[in-house]
Amino acid sequence: MISFANIYALFGLITLPLIFFIMKFYPPKPKKIKFSSFFILKKIVKNDTAKTKFPLWLLVFRILLCFFIVLFFSKPFLKISDQKNKYKNFVIIADNGWSISSNLKNYKNIIKEISLEAEKSNKEIHLYFSSAKDFNKPFIFKTHNQIIDFLNKKPPIAKQIIRESFFKNLKINNYFKDSKVFFIFSHLDSRSLESQIRNLNLIKNNNPSIQIIDPIKKITFIEELKIDKESLDMKVRRKGNYVKNEFLIQFIGEKNDLILEKKYTFSKNSNEFKIKEKFPIEIINQFFLIKILNENHAAAFYYLDDFRKKLPVGIITAEDHELEKPLLSPVYYLKKVLTNSNLTFIGPLTKILEKKASVVFLPSNKRLSKLDITALEKWVYDGGVLIRFSDKRIVEQSNIFLDKKKSFLSIRNIGKDLSIQSNLSIRPFNNNSLFSSLKVPQDLKFNKQLILDNFNSDIITLASLEDQSPLISMKYVGDGKIILFHVTSNNEWSNLPMSSLFEDIILKLLLISKTEKVLPTKEIKIKFVINSNGDLAVPKNNYYLNYPFGEKLLPSAKQPAGIYENNSLSIALNLSGNLNTEGYFDAIDEELEIKSNYKKSVLELKNFILYLIFIMFLIDMIINIVLKNNILFLGFLKKTKVLSILFFFLIFLSIQNRIEANESYSNIYLAYIKTENKLLNQIAFSGLDELRKYLIERTSLNPSGVKEINILKDELFFYPLIYWQITSSSPKLSEITVNKIKDYFDSGGIILFDIIDFSKSYSSINRDSIEEIRQLFTKYGIENLQSIPKGHTLTKSYYLLNKFPGRWDNRLLLIQNDNLENKDGVSSVIIGLNDWAGAWAKDKNNYHLYQVVPGGERQREISYRFGINLLMYSLTGSYKSDQVHSKSILDRLKRE
To answer: Considering the chain, what is the average pLDDT of its residues?
Structure first.
């Protein structure tokens, strides 16, 4: 049965014959114009014309074409089944959890198709969200446009859902047996496998006619992420049919700058990939966001907070702190705990304060100078955290909290003759304590303990022994804190430093530097919410996080995924890494038919009609050409004319090539070799373009632009300097290409080879690594590489430089010294590992793409200076090595 969605267009079709007959029998009246007889003679047409008969079949054909055009706008459809007429309305129960965002287009298309069918059947559409609490009141729509507009304003939520009132509503509505029901179901959204099974069984047992549709075609997400010291462990999983097994992970800084992008590959027929990476702690501290590229959902974004970043800490020592027996040293156990997990500085107080440490440890109580005590007091009053330990010398001091209040100290011997208790351990930690998640070992022993005879109320006890005597105390001093261990940092007074508990306590205490108060725990207000796409957004409501130290938090309605902050602490509550995935890859009951899309019970005819109209238009054009005897208009394709067109086209190409060659000869261009990696090409272009701007600003040079070179096809001779990024996947060059590069070198050209893949791994250069680099360049026909000598022309061609950093600061710079006498002493090959384009490149918002390590913006400035020196060197050669420049260069060196 054929019906029409747009009945008004059909009425227009019916009125067409009526309009035709009205125009034929009641034509418009002609206008009356007065003119002379000469006017008629002037308008006489001398050419003879003969009226030809218009074919009737063509008239019928064109009327039929008009009929199909009007039929198209009437939107006809064919009803396959009339069963839906027995339903009162259409009911859609839709999941709207985190996984929907990744397949939002398919999700909306399914709902749109269901709504279109309801609209054509004159039925209402009742929409329920399975995550809603007030489940009795549906959203009611009459057209598909209304429901799509509504969904555009109601994005998915960044959490897993429990479907709390799902079965409650089914019972209230008698399982919607009078309606045609659709359940848009994603088992990835299920927070509980038990709840998911219960909901699906409810459908199977009470209304098996409900159509269950899964909109998730494919998705990749972060299941686990853990940072431990310098190690980053991450588990990535995927679901669906992927053509490619590769995926990209991006590491992004707080200013949205890309620090690192790396490709990983799933094994064939595997849906799980474990990533294990090692980064220096200073690099980990720069990470703000880790995300899977091209996955726009919250489980592909992982934000790092203060608890996952490592603090700069210092250990105050004397010059002779290294003993012959390190196990007896008060520094040994602290150093063991802190070195691998934080930025740790060991040395005198002055050097540690220069490093801007957040926490300072004082393991020994050797007498500090008055200047050191004054500096330490000021640092604590300004917000620093000092953690100090007891020993036999501490009783000689009275101002242990640096607050100018006298303390009366004594040392208690535990287990001696006069001691009441012979064996004491640590008292179990309180539930609201910073250490509440830690377990006390049974084999702890304490021999001695520092006792404060005037224990004031402003001193907080963080941990105590079983007799309630303090083990760890804390006092607020100005804006800072002083934490006192009542035992030594070595095994002289107890075996605590030798236990695993000691490391856990120290790492927990480092959190104090980031919190205003330790007791009681305060609620932290949300600053940004993580939306369904994984981006940070301003929350519409206020949410608060009550952070239980040591416990795992999951996003919920009361505590949504987001960034929670106060004046001193930032906590990221992520969906990624906190997913309950127990039901993701389990088989679902086979009796339940879960479809991947919606099959309509009506067949749209307008697309078929549109194809038919297009074909009829083409046929009409061909008929028109044949009837008018204009088929010869195709004669322009005859050979003579085609050859002439090709001739002029070739002339144009040769002129164009000559124009480009003349342009390259008369202008300076910065150039780079095109690689197979598009990202590297973009970085190279952006970096060289920024260098070009610096050259224009600081020198008399005015480069016209940046050009990309295909090493196999393009000429090299136009460019004095070429930048070439080398990766481990760079292909081996043919003999023709190698000879082409040699010819370029012989003509005076210079290539800067930047070994990208090895930039970080060669932080410490040795003979083996240099030999590996030499072997790498043999496939480019480059041999006899030597380290750049001191005083080389490159170090003084414009700026005076003693190093050549880029994004990294590897000191190695190799040059080739072959045939210098034939090239005016200029080295044609320069090789480094510093990723110079990465240091220069900027994004569309004029922010640098990458941070430079370890020297910051000063290192970036020197990197730009190296780029300027390099181009000057390629243009002027060994000009600055002439004797005439020696005096001025020496004067500048003296001033610096």
So the answer is: 79
Does a structural domain hold residue 135?
Answer: no
Are residues 191 and 579 in contact, defined by beta-carbon separation less than 8 angstroms?
no
Q: How many structural domains compose the chain? A: 4
Owning domain of residue 59: 2-44+55-79
468: left (phi over 0), alpha (psi -120 to 50) or beta: left
- Note the Cα 14 to chain centre separation in Å: 59
Q: Which residues contact 366 (CB under 8 A, 6 or more apart)?
A: 318, 393
Report pLDDT digits (tens) over 458-517.
888 999 998 889 999 999 998 889 999 999 999 899 999 999 899 889 888 887 765 543
Q: For residue 325, give both structure tokens.
A: 């027996």
- Cα–Cα distance measured from residue 28 to residue 24, given in angstroms and rounded to the nearest whole number: 10
- Burial 256-277, CB ≥16 within 10 A → b, else e: ebbbbeeeeebeeeeeebebee
- Which one, of 228, 225, 224, lies nearest residue 507 by Cα? 228
Tokens standing for residue 559 = 């505590």
602 and 120 Cβ atoms separated by less than 8 Å: yes
Half-sphere exposure of 884 (CA within 13 A, CB side): 3
Burial of 566 (0-12, 13-18, 19+ CB in 10 A): middle
Asked if residue 789 and residue 763 are part of one domain, the reply reads yes
Residue 117 has pLDDT above 90, yes or no: no
CA distances from 599 to 151, 419, 816 (A): 21, 84, 69
pLDDT digits (tens, 9 = 90+) for 71-109: 777 777 666 555 555 778 898 888 888 999 888 989 999
Q: Which two tokens stand for residue 722?
A: 């070429």
